[in-house]
Design goal:
7 helices; 6 strands; 14% strand; globular
Length: 170
C-alpha cells in the first residue's frame, strides 16, 4: 500500500542524523497507524533488521539500502509514498514518486519540497491529523493526478529556462 524511505545511520539502529532528518519518530507513528489501525501493508527502505513498534508485523517489510532501479520498482508497486521528513531540503524521492504517478503523504512542516504538493499530488499531514488525512487520501485516491500535475507545472524546458536565466543574472 505504501512505501517509506528511512535509512539508518548505523548497524545498531540508533537514531542519529538520518533519523532526525527523515523524522523517524513521526514515521513510526504513521506506520503504526497504517499497519495496525488500517491494516495496510508497507515497505520501509533502509531499516533492515531494525525494530518497528507495530503489532501487525506481517504488514511491514523492511529492507536495507536498495539500488536505484530496485527502489523505483518498489515505488511503482506502492499506492503512495509516506514522507514524514522534516529537515530535508526537497527530498528526491518526493519528485520521483510524483513522476511515477504516486501520490505523496507529506509532513506539513517539511523544510523543502512542499511546493510540489497540492490537491492533485498528495496530502499534507501533521501529528494531530494523521488518521483524518489518511482517510481523505484513501477516499480521494482516484482524484489524484500526480504525474500529470507535476509534469504540467515543472516541465524541463519551462524550469530549465527559468533556472538558466537565474544563473545568468548572477
Amino acid at each position: 500500500d505504501f512505501i517509506c524511505v528511512q535509512p539508518i545511520d548505523n548497524k545498531q539502529c540508533i537514531a542519529k542524523w538520518h533519523a532526525h532528518n527523515k523524522n523517524w519518530k513521526l514515521a513510526e507513528i504513521c506506520i503504526k497507524i497504517f499497519a495496525d489501525e488500517f491494516n495496510m501493508k508497507g515497505i520501509i527502505i533502509g531499516r533492515e533488521k531494525c525494530p518497528v513498534d507495530i503489532n501487525n508485523k506481517k504488514n511491514i517489510v523492511t529492507t536495507g539500502s536498495l539500488k536505484y532501479d530496485e527502489c523505483i520498482k518498489k515505488m511503482k508497486q506502492s499506492k503512495f509514498m509516506l514522507l514524514p521528513n522534516y529537515e530535508d531540503a526537497s527530498p528526491r524521492v518526493l519528485t520521483e514518486a510524483l513522476s511515477l504517478d504516486k501520490p505523496v503523504f507529506v509532513y506539513s512542516k517539511i523544510l523543502g519540497g512542499w511546493k510540489y504538493i497540492n490537491d492533485k499530488t498528495g496530502v499534507f499531514f501533521d501529528e494531530t491529523n494523521i488518521r483524518d488525512k489518511l482517510v481523505y487520501m484513501l477516499n480521494n485516491y482516484d482524484n489524484f493526478e500526480p504525474r500529470k500535475t507535476f509534469l504540467k507545472s515543472y516541465k524541463i524546458k519551462k524550469k530549465g529556462k527559468k533556472f538558466k536565466l537565474f544563473l545568468e543574472s548572477l
